[in-house]
């Protein structure tokens, strides 16, 4: 009889709804997720009452449950930035966790609750409507106030703060601040449940963080509370959002099997451990330590004693976006030795015969095309234990590290091969190349914009499918495996992400 792990995802997008489900597919666990119909649609929140009823029923006989608090309380990640709930209303919803524990006293309860992001740019796509006009000013005001409070603001920055405060409508800033205060207070309430033993483990992810500003201030408050409650061994805080369920899933599997895998980390650049990735607030090496710890593993400095080898493709300086691939600077060339990473991967796979994971964090929002080219030439695309190269550095780490752990435990399953294929098509194909191509070539024909292509499976999805197939035939050739796209859609009717179903078949 299979054990059951119940997952309440952060929202209905494929990265949150599908990835952890796919990773757990060929294990001894039944991975249970809600019907997508009760999870909402972007700014429209999920059906919270239905979600609560589903949870209470499914967790009665489960080994463990992984809960997105943002979905549990607000109906999803975007609704968490838009709601008008009071603390009292949210606390009432939060009490369902006690009910889960009462119904099943032995269940493992792992949760994650984001610190609300504060984008640096003006866009209402995932924020309140006024953020479309005033988002940049809201960020600047929070950032400059924080620097002023720390007494590190320059004379020019203090002058800039006065200018921003003069033109930014105060009602918008106050609305934004009041919601942040409520969400942060809820984070503290959840930490109380860790302290009392109702919750076994918690991650507080940072979504699009920066060293200064409103998010950093909230982070400091939460970190102080964690220290005061003496729960630092049970509450981790580090950059991520969309990949946290993957990490909690493998942590739960490791705990069930009483495993603590050792991971050896090797970088493509001597300086890479000390870079601060785009959209994040700390050194890359510090985040990697947390990602490994959160997954139920430990870092080891010795390759020979490791269970898994993690190779990190990162620059020796400022991180670029994937669309800037042709603008690579010395930080990507002379300050990095990419060929060694590929040769070392081949050595680990074929000589040492250990699981080898490649974290492709050289660029934000997509894969490094040079790395994909070298892996293809070396013939190791489908021999690695894990690969990812999408969105933020931590989204990538929170995807490939869990995949590597699943591979370490369960081996080279069909689900593993299919997930690798999905990563190459999505991260290298769509994120790094086809997204921008479709935006330039096709959107103007239909008067569509980056944030609005009108349909999930309309004409743009058709073009994306066609161009991805072209990319596969030109860039992802493998002598043993063939990648086939079975479905292609635009989840939130925009270009930022793509929904794909990919199968990888052995060549006859």
Describe what this molecule looks like in 3D.
With 508 residues, the protein is α/β, with parallel strands linked by helices. The protein is built from 17 helices and 15 strands. Helix 16 packs across helix 17 (459-475). The longest helix has 28 residues, at 414-441. The relative contact order is 0.09.
Which class of the largest domain in CATH terms? Answer: Alpha Beta
Mean pLDDT: 96
Strand content: 5-15%
Shape: globular
The span between the termini is 35 Å
Domain count: the total is: 4
User: What is the number of strand segments?
Assistant: 15
Radius of gyration: 22 Å
The portion of residues assigned to helices is 40-55%
> Low-confidence parts lasting 5 or more residues at pLDDT below 50?
none
Query: What is the CATH topology assignment of the largest domain?
Result: Rossmann fold
| Largest sheet, spatial ordering of strands | 2-1-3-4-5-6
Number of helices: 17
Largest sheet: 6 strands, parallel
The assigned structural class equals: alpha/beta
Q: Based on the coordinates given, report the CATH architecture of the largest domain.
A: 3-Layer(aba) Sandwich
What is the gist of this entry?
With 508 residues, this protein is of the alpha/beta class. It has helices at residues 14-17, 19-23, 48-58, 69-74, 87-94, 96-103, 131-149, 155-167, 170-196, 214-228, 244-256, 284-294, 338-352, 369-378, 393-410, 414-441, 459-475, and strands at residues 3-8, 29-32, 64-68, 108-112, 201-206, 235-239, 262-267, 298-300, 308-313, 320-321, 356-360, 363-364, 386-388, 481-489, 499-506.
């Amino acid at each position: 009889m299979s054990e059951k792990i119940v997952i309440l995802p952060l929202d209905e997008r494929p990265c949150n709804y599908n990835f952890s489900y796919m990773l757990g597919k060929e294990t001894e666990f039944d991975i249970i997720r809600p019907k997508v119909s009760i999870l909402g649609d972007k700014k429209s929140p999920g059906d919270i009452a239905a979600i609560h009823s589903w949870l209470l029923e499914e967790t009665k006989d489960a080994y463990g449950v992984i809960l997105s608090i943002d979905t549990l309380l607000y109906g999803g990640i975007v609704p968490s930035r838009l709601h008008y709930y009071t603390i009292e209303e949210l606390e009432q919803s939060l009490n369902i966790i006690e009910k889960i524990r009462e119904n099943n006293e032995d269940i493992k309860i792992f949760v994650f609750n984001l610190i609300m992001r504060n984008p640096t740019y003006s866009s209402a796509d995932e924020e309140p409507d006024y953020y479309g006009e005033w988002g940049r000013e809201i960020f600047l005001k929070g950032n400059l106030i924080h620097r002023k409070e720390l007494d590190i603001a320059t004379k020019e920055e203090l002058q800039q703060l006065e200018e921003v405060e003069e033109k930014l409508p105060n009602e918008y800033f106050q609305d934004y601040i009041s919601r942040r205060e409520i969400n942060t207070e809820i984070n503290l309430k959840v930490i109380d449940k860790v302290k009392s033993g109702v919750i076994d483990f918690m991650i507080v992810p940072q979504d699009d963080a920066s060293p200064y500003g409103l998010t950093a201030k909230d982070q400091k408050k939460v970190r102080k509370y964690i220290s005061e409650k003496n729960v630092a061994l049970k509450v981790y805080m580090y950059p991520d959002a969309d990949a946290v369920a993957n990490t909690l899933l493998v942590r739960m599997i490791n705990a069930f099997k009483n495993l603590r895998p050792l991971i050896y980390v090797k970088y493509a650049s001597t300086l890479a451990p000390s870079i601060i990735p785009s959209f994040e607030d700390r050194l890359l090496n510090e985040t990697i330590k947390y990602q490994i710890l959160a997954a139920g593993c430990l870092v080891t400095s010795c390759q020979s004693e490791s269970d898994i080898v993690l190779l990190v493709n990162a620059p020796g300086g400022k991180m670029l976006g994937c669309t800037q691939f042709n603008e690579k600077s010395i930080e990507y060339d002379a300050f990095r030795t990419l060929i060694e990473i590929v040769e070392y991967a081949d050595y680990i796979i074929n000589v040492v015969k250990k699981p080898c994971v490649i974290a492709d964090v050289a660029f934000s929002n997509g894969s490094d095309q040079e790395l994909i080219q070298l892996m293809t030439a070396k013939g190791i695309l489908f021999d690695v234990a894990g690969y990812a190269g999408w969105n933020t550095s931590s989204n990538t780490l929170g995807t490939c590290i869990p995949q590597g752990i699943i591979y370490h435990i369960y081996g080279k399953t069909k689900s593993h091969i299919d997930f690798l294929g999905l990563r190459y098509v999505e991260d290298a194909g769509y994120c790094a190349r086809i997204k921008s191509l479709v935006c330039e070539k096709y959107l103007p024909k239909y008067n569509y914009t980056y944030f609005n292509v009108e349909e999930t499976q309309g004409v743009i999805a058709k073009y994306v499918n066609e161009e991805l197939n072209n990319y596969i035939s030109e860039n992802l050739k493998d002598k043993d495996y063939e990648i086939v796209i079975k479905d292609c859609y635009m989840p939130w009717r925009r270009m930022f992400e793509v929904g794909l179903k990919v199968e990888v078949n052995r060549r006859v």
